[in-house]
Amino acid sequence: MMIVALAFFGLLILGLPIGYVLGIAGVVGLLQLGGPEFLTMAPRRFFEGLDLFTFMAMPLFILAGEIMNRSGITSRLIDFANALVGYLRGGLAHSNMLASVLFSGMTGAAVSDAAAFGNTMVPAMVKQGYSRPFACAVTAAGSIIGPTIPPSNLMVIYGSLMGVSIAGLFAAGILPGLLIALLCMCLIAALGRRLNLPKGEGGPSLKLILSTFRSSLLAILMPVMILGAILFGITTPTEAAALAVLYALVVGTVIYRSLKWSDLFDMLERTARITGVVFLIIASASILGWWMTFVQLPQMVAASFLALTTNPEAIIGMILLLLLAIGLFMDINAALIILAPVLVPLTNAIGMDPVHAGIMIILTLNISLMTPPVGACLFVLSSVTGEKIERISGALWPFLLVQVGVLMLIAFWPDLTLFVPRLLGF
Fold first, then answer.
1. Are 359 and 171 in contact (CB under 8 A)?
2. Can you say how many angstroms the Cα of residue 374 is from the centroid of all Cα atoms in its chain?
3. pLDDT above 70 (res 107)
4. 214-245 b/e with 16+ CB inside 10 Å = b?
């Protein structure tokens, strides 16, 4: 076991891509177990790791998000959000957060949201008088709403690997995502006078709200239709994702007419790149996962935690600390794939609902997208805006504290997460 751990962390420190690190560590584990004869299992486990129908939902949701991005939907949603809250002090910051909520139902990926709003909202905020680090911090804080409010790629991965209802996870993510947005907007309001944030001109305009709502209605309807079809049992997540692609194509090409068929190749190429990276991680992790199962690592970890304490709250606290620490240094997809099979038996042992445990794990890893040294959203915003990561991080810490507070609520108050799933019968 020590040899596998040394191989894993050694290759990670050397900077090898995480997909290769997982595969090589898994192969080392197979060699350690049974020598070269066990290597014949590696190709089988590699392909069987991807042999889940629900994984098809992931590239389809990514493609639907790409199409809606190219259709100019981001600007329409921003206009609607700005009409609702733009007149307040810190109006554009509020609009940024609210637009993240609206946009989250289309992409399901924090990095996509960070890139989209880094190109649009950050320059607009800077032009109105916000500091660039603060504008980037608001965008980073809003970006993790994307993989929390469904559809979420992380929820698809977790549900597929752990045999948990993806529809139940989608339902459970709604309240936590909205709570993050609400409390971040409260923080922006509290910082408004202290930082002398710019105030929008005029007051609320019903005419402007209605006109921007009409303009963005088709975009707003997309996540409502997707989630409605899944949560009420009309379609599976994979079927809903396929319908989302069709809907996005019709809206982009026929109704908005802002999308050319020649754009389709670029969107398919980007979708293939993103999906390829995630699927390589999943397939490689399945080799390592088989080794962990064979040596009973999940049971050993559960026994170690339970040997320290049998108090459920203390164990939940240790799980959160472990996930936050791992998230500082590892890609969240890889961390989820590796740690979920190890930690879920432990959460089962203390009586946690599998959906509650899944949302807790996913939100904890989402928060790590905003923490250096490998926070993906920080790198995206830094590259898009030209702002230094350390300056963004300095402005981000109040939002980080708020989101950790939400994480504590979700972890230790199960009803907050499970209210909507129970209401819908999951």
1. no
2. 15
3. no
4. ebbebbbebbebbbebbbeeebbbbebbbbbb
